[in-house]
Amino acid sequence: MQSKDLLQLAEQFGNPLYVYDAEKIQSQYNRLSKAFSKVNKLRINYAMKALSNVAILQLLKEMGSGLDTVSIQEVMLGLHAGYDPEKIFYTPNGVSLEEIEEVNAMGVQINIDNLSILEQFGTKYPNVPVCIRINPHVMAGGNANISVGHIDSKFGISVHQLPHLVRIVENTKMNIVGIHMHTGSDILDIEVFLYAAEILFDAAKNFKNLEFLDFGSGFKVPYKKDDIETDIEELGKKLSKRFNAFCVEYGKELTLIFEPGKFLVSEAGFFLAKVNVVKQTTSTVFAGIDSGFNHLIRPMFYGSQHHIENISHPKGKERFYSVVGYICETDTFANNRKISEIKEGDILCFRNAGAYCFSMASNYNSRYKPAEVLWLKGEGHLIRAHETFEDLLKNQIPLPVEFATI
Known about the structure:
This protein is of the alpha/beta class. The chain is built from twelve helices and 18 strands.
């Protein structure tokens, strides 16, 4: 997308605004598919927690994607978007047996990540095909909040508990059809990923009726110019060869599954916000925008960096700004960042705003959530309307009249 397109959308739909480029999502999906073209049975399940708008789900469905879900509500959204139940994987963490049973009744693939629930579910439903999530204790990823493969992680069943796991399966006569792992997000070293894959291969040998191996995802995308990213092509070459060899060893052609979220949608996303005020203090120039961490929390939550550009005046002289929001507490998107000279009324564009941005938005400070637009075939399509005051009041119940004057 070009800056002129984004400016036109900002004028048409208002600010702040999320915009997603359908062509970029499609190219990332095709890139991953091509990298693993040597695998006969490849399946991509979009990790919808990254961006769960129904229109995005429908776009990926048309490309052949399945879904990776982590809650019953995500399962329901996937079904609403038209996905067949068998194309939906459900991998929750810390949920009740009752929720898992409810999802199971919907016909989706269950993926269990703790021994207690595994034994309870297997005892009641021994014939239901189940996937098991293994924690390989191999940590990949950037920020500690998104590195989930370490030994103290709440995710998965420890590979060191494999004998206990096997005993539960044997005692309940469960139908184990898949093994799954996830090491974390922002994988930089593919050798670490390949090492974790070997642990999964070893674990898989304990189960005789597998249909697939799910290697999770966590592929890193570039967030700034010359930034490093996961070498998908190299990973595809090495893991495909090893996976195919394992299938021969196992005696059966298995399906290789990935569940990318950020990899598919991060770079496709743009967040547009208008500059309300340029404020000079004794040491800093603040650019205050008509948004805050209620709309894009990642810089405050993860310390993540989103490239910011002034698309209203991209050729202006560069100056240093701290870009801040309107939330009534520390609310900083960037400190001392070099950006083309900013004037009040300019539109700033935040890159890599497709993953974990709108999906973590809130109504903090009673602010409205922004609209979302899909840029498809050269046109902007509104896929979520900007919230209104009525949306804030929805589901709120005022005090009865007799208590209102207490």
